[in-house]
Design brief:
Distance between the termini: 63 Å
Order of helices and strands: HHEEHHEHHHHHHHHH
Strand content: 5-15%
Oligomer: single chain
Shape: elongated
Helix content: 40-55%
Number of helices: 13
Number of strands: 3
Largest sheet: 3 strands, antiparallel
Length: 320
């Protein structure tokens, strides 16, 4: 099924759900805005140019809208959305976002990793201030799971209803009105960042010192159970031919270290787990260490006269 047909079917079901909604006017505003965002994703700046990087907004129902709240200012804080629906927050909201998976927890993690205030980072500076007060940011998902454009539309309407602090219209630290994000475009995994972007990030964090707690966490070693889980997951993963070649080219031609040589010599002659499993499935007894050593010693040696004559007679019988 083509993407256009999937999109039409998704919006038809959304329009049908409006009729049974408690707030049909608000839901209609959301669907209308979502359709506009969906169409804007394919907009071009110049008709003669090719479209921008394809932003086919995903149609899987995995996206949601979340809020970050300040525990220092208890509510209630009611806000009215277009269409008459009212949403009430128990604490002061200071950021509205859209995401999937565990996206809503990334902000507090970043603030903990870099606890020093940075000029211009309103959202992270507020989270750092809450942490310095020995409190935790209240993070909550405030929408059902839906397609990406619907999540974008809800984000836009919530930001508009609550108001941004930089516009002196409300308490939110959002820098935009919402409706955009990397998740809607092509995957950023594997793409190189520009030199300007890298330098800007480095400049913002240059000179920051990690706390003793962060250093202690970095020096922690994984537990044996965690190491075994990682090892099992890695062994179960199937590598492509390109990945195998890339891994091999990284070590190909390099001399072995004394430790690796010693480990290789220690393993020599000992069947691996895969070999033992193969022997068990074939009902063949594995060779002993002495047998393997004897076979290795004979490899490349001269045949005895008896073995040579037996081999020659076998070949002559085949020719006949």
């Amino acid at each position: 099924m083509s993407y256009s047909k999937q999109r039409r079917d998704a919006f038809r079901s959304l329009i049908d759900s409006i009729r049974t909604s408690k707030f049909p006017e608000t839901e209609a505003e959301v669907v209308k805005l979502a359709w506009n965002i969906q169409e804007l994703a394919f907009a071009t700046t110049d008709p003669t140019d090719k479209p921008k990087k394809s932003r086919k907004l995903r149609l899987h129902r995995i996206f949601y809208v979340y809020v970050l709240m300040d525990p220092r200012f208890p509510g209630p804080y009611p806000y009215t959305l277009p269409g008459g629906k009212t949403i009430t927050f128990p604490f002061l909201p200071f950021y509205i976002g859209k995401g999937n998976d565990a996206r809503m927890y990334d902000h507090t993690k970043e603030a903990r990793n870099f606890p020093e205030p940075v000029r211009g980072e309103r959202k992270l500076n507020k989270i750092r201030k809450i942490h310095r007060s020995r409190l935790e940011v209240i993070t909550k998902r405030i929408s059902d799971f839906s397609i990406e454009s619907i999540a974008f539309a809800k984000e836009v309407l919530l930001i508009k209803s609550i108001g941004r602090a930089d516009k002196k219209c409300g308490p939110l630290t959002n820098k935009t009105d919402g409706g955009e994000g990397a998740s809607g475009g092509p995957s950023v995994k594997g793409l190189k960042r520009s030199a300007e972007s890298v330098e800007k990030s480095a400049q913002a964090r240059r000179g920051q010192k990690r706390t003793p707690e962060q250093l202690a966490n970095m020096r922690k070693t994984r537990s044996p159970e965690a190491q075994e889980n990682i090892r099992a997951a890695a062994s179960a993963r199937e590598l492509t031919q390109e990945q195998r070649f890339a891994i091999g080219s990284g070590t190909r031609g390099k001399p072995w270290s004394p430790a690796r040589k010693a480990a290789h010599e220690a393993r020599k002659g000992t069947p691996s787990e895969k070999q033992l499993a193969y022997y068990a499935s074939m009902k063949v007894k594995p060779l002993s260490t002495k047998q393997i050593a004897a076979n290795t010693a004979r490899r490349g040696g001269n045949w005895s006269p008896a073995r040579r004559s037996a081999h020659d007679s076998k070949q002559n019988s085949k020719r006949k």
